[in-house]
Amino acid sequence: MTEAGAPLSFRLLGLYPKKAGSALVGVAAAATLPRSLREPLLGRFAASFGVDLSEAGKPIGEYTSFLDFFTRRLKPGLRPQDPTVDGGLNSPVDGALIASGRIEAGTLLQAKGLPYRMDELLAADPLAPRFEGGAYATLYLSPRDYHRIHVPCTGRVLAVGRVEGELWPVNEASTAFTPGLYVRNRRAYWIAEGTGEDEGLDVAAVMVAATHVGGVVVDPRWLEGRSLAPRDRLSVAGLPCAPGDDLGTFELGSTVVLLVGGVRAHGFTWGRPHGPVRVGQRLGAFVP
After folding, report:
1. Catalytic residue among 22, 100, 174, 254
2. So where are the chain's domains?
3. 194 with 155: CB under 8 angstroms?
4. Mean pLDDT for each 10-residue chunk of the chain (288 residues)?
5. Which residue is catalytic, options 125, 145, 147, 150?
6. Total-model pTM
7. Which of 29, 62, 101, 247 could hold 67 in an S-S bridge, CB 3.0 to 4.6 Å?
8. Does 142 qualify as catalytic in the annotation?
9. Is residue 254 annotated as part of the catalytic site, yes or no?
10. E strand spans, the chain
11. 150 assigned to active site
C-alpha cells in the first residue's frame, strides 16, 4: 500500500518481486571478481556514486567482490569519536540525519503525515516500554557511504533481535509515500542501557533493510556464539560497549533509527541539524 500522489514508477514497484530480486542481487554482489576486473568494475561503481576511495582501508584491487567493497573498513583513525559529555550520543554511521524528534504516545514520524509505532519497530520487545516518551533520530545511508554501524554510547548490551519483513526501497520517495515503511521492512535491532556518562539513558539502534539491501548483520560479538533466526530475540548478558565499537553491517546501505529512552530521556536533546553526519560526531546530549 502506498499513499495517494506517489509517482507512477514507485507505484509500479509494488509489482516487482523485491525479495527475489534482492536475493539475486545479493548472490551477484558476493560473487568473486577476477583480479583483472576488480579495479575497473569497482572503480566504475565508486565513480558513479562518488565514493571517496582515499578513505578505504586497502587498495580497490584487493576487494574480492562488490560485497567485500560495500562492507569495507576505513583507514584507522579516520572517524574519531567526539569527546564524551554527560548523556552524549554519537553517530553510529556515515550518512544523513533526515528526521528527529520525540516519541509521543508511542509514535514516531517517518515523514510529514506518516507516523509509525515504536513498539512495532522493536517487534514488541520486552524492553520497548523503556523508550516511551524518549527521542528518536533517523539516519539514511546512500550507496556512496561507509556501511558499517558503530556503537553510539557507553553502556552494556541487553538484547538483539531480528524481524523478517518486506524489502521496499528506503529513500526520499519511499519515506514520503509508504506508510509504516520502517515497521514493514526487514530489520535487526540492538538495545543497550547507558553506563558512565550515559547512565540513565537506554539506546536502541534499529537497522532497516531495503530493496537489494537485504543483508542486515549484527556483529558476532553481541550474539555470544549464537545466531539470529529470521524472527528472533536474544538476551545479551550485559556486555560492555563503548562509542565506536562495531555494532553491525549493512550489505549495501539503508537506514538506522536510533531510539533514546530511560529515566533521563526527558532531558536528552538532539543538538545536530539535519544533513550529513559521520561516525563519531555528536548527535545529541543530556540537557538538565
Report:
1. 254
2. 8-70, 89-286
3. yes
4. 50 52 62 93 94 96 93 96 96 96 93 84 96 96 93 98 84 72 91 98 94 77 94 96 97 87 96 96 92
5. 150
6. 0.90
7. 29
8. no
9. yes
10. 89-90, 95-102, 107-111, 114-117, 135-140, 148-150, 155-163, 187-194, 202-208, 216-218, 232-241, 246-250, 255-261, 268-270, 275-277, 282-286
11. yes
